[in-house]
Specification:
two-stranded antiparallel sheet, elongated
């Protein structure tokens, strides 16, 4: 992912990593402009913070902004999830916010996000010139994520045996 992009066309890559921390698990969302999807100053002016837009938004749309730390055994990174966070949490941002306000940390969606710590996911990342410097610093925006199943072996089962093929080894003297 650190190689330079020589073409204008965006490329995609995937990597597998384990989530070690969810940095903003208590409030993994922001309010967005309906026109440009950029952040809205919801508390003060209700103005879109995008310099090109600057509309006043009376009812902004909640969107996910989940910041996580991941590691894969050789490296670590900070990954940002926008719409892909729906896979991690299991619902739309609006539903998550409503459940969190009503049930606080007892919300099943809040519990699901926390239970993903320690699990391995496959991350799809768009490689383009615009995000190259951020990637070089270990900051990645994932387009999609997919849970990877863990492979476990039950060693307590008395009937479990591992049959290995017999192999002849030639010895030289």
């Amino acid at each position: 992912m650190h190689k330079s992009q020589n073409s204008i066309q965006a490329r995609y890559c995937t990597f597998k990593a384990k989530i070690t921390t969810i940095l903003n698990r208590l409030e993994p969302w922001f309010y967005a402009c309906k026109g440009c999807d950029k952040k809205v100053d919801k508390d003060v002016s209700k103005e879109c913070l995008n310099d090109k837009c600057r509309r006043i938004i009376d009812d902004p749309v909640p969107r996910y902004l989940v910041k996580i730390l991941v590691e894969n055994g050789t490296d670590n990174a900070r990954v940002t999830l926008f719409d892909a966070a729906e896979t991690l949490i299991g619902c739309k941002a609006e539903t998550f916010i409503t459940e969190k306000k009503e049930k606080n940390n007892q919300s099943p969606y809040f519990q699901k996000i926390v239970l993903n710590i320690g699990k391995t996911f496959k991350f799809l990342v768009k490689l383009d010139e615009k995000t190259k410097d951020e990637r070089d610093e270990g900051n990645i925006i994932a387009q999609e994520i997919q849970l990877q199943s863990d492979i476990t072996i039950d060693v307590d089962d008395e009937d479990a045996t591992l049959e290995l093929p017999r192999k002849k080894i030639k010895r030289r003297m």
